[in-house]
Amino acid sequence: MMYTQFRKHVWLFCFILWVIGCGGDSITTPHAPLDLKAEVGDQSVKLTWSSASGGEIEGYFVYRSLYSGGDYQRLTLIPLYTGLADFASDEPAYEDTGLKNGTTYYYVVTAVDDRGNESPFSSEIYATPNILKEFSAVINMLVIHSAPDVLYAATDEGLFKTRDGGFTWENLSPGLKEIESLAITEAEPPSFYISLPEQGILCNNKGSTDNISWIFKASLSQVSLIKAAPSLGGNQNFLYAVSEMRLYVSRDGGVIWELLPNSPKDITALDIYTKDPDILYVGTKTGDIYLSKDGGMTWEQISKTNKQGINDLAVYPENPAILYITTTSGTLLKTMDSCRSWEFLSNSMGDYTKVAISKTKPEILYVYNEDFFYSTLYKSKDGGSSWEQIDAQQIVKNK
Length: 399
What we know:
The protein is mostly beta strands. The chain has two domains: 30-127, Sandwich (Immunoglobulin-like); 134-396, 7 Propeller (Methylamine Dehydrogenase, Chain H), CATH 2.130.10.10. The protein has one helix and 33 strands. It has one helix at 2-22, and strands at residues 34-41, 44-50, 57-65, 73-74, 80-81, 93-97, 105-113, 125-127, 134-136, 139-144, 151-155, 158-162, 170-171, 181-184, 192-196, 200-204, 215-218, 223-228, 239-243, 246-250, 258-259, 267-272, 280-284, 288-292, 300-304, 310-315, 323-327, 332-335, 343-346, 351-357, 365-370, 374-380, 388-396. Strands 3, 4, 5, 7 and 8 form a five-stranded antiparallel sheet that branches. Strands 9-33-32-31-30 form a five-stranded mixed sheet, with no helix packed on it. Strand 20 (246-250) and strand 21 (258-259) form a beta hairpin.
């Protein structure tokens, strides 16, 4: 009997020690933080998340990695303090600074209670800091040059360049605004042509826009489009321009311009087939699409898109029967048979105004989506079947 009572006393004593030592409810590991979000900036990422539950939360640890799924490095020596009684009403946050623009970073967060117990990792989130998170610009033309992630944008605020597919942008033309159009020749070094409402057509033939130097080329008025013909045969200096909705050609690099008298009227879109510079397509504000096979001397009407005006068009580099167009109703369309039939690639949430296709990797496309408040770039890696939004670089429309 005494032995049985002794065992009960020992068991009760051990239980009391266990409760005292473990702190009752404190044996529960805190729950992982939820709703982790990232906001990118210039060389910085700001993280926010919802307050964790499970025990008395003392603070949070933030972890970062250059790789998805692991190899995380803790960024703080002690937990980020949550505050006192009102901390639950304040959204926890942490700003990671001194980062490299254009590099993708992966983050997770853990919660720590007052006894030092740490929660599991939160869901992972990634972010790519960039030079300009937002800039006030409306894109008038997109041009993909050389690599598929190298884009130039002619905008109301100047000429911008990205080397990473739209995540970071650099202004190449401080002081030059209201750029309507852009053409880049295929020669080495390339020449850059831009059009401005007042100055006409300007050229930079330095081969680079890093130290920009523009010279006057032509006083064509209201130039909305410029295209450089592919550098094949004797067409190295051929340029096409749309002035007052009529098509002009220059055969000497932009010095002298000639109206193509048989060209269609009301032209709003133009592109040239990469492998044959005599094949030209134009679209009009009334929705007509015309084809020329002799460099613009004669034209054939091949399509009318139900009274939807044409905003932009792009010819597939490997096959002139394949075209992408954007219309004034905001739709993005594709034809595989020289405009006899059309496929809707996307129903507009705004207005798809511009489309660009990579000449080296034609399965890569970019479209510019413009709505009432915001305008955004989208990228497709499969010829338009699926799209991803370029989240890190949002272009704000404020006109």
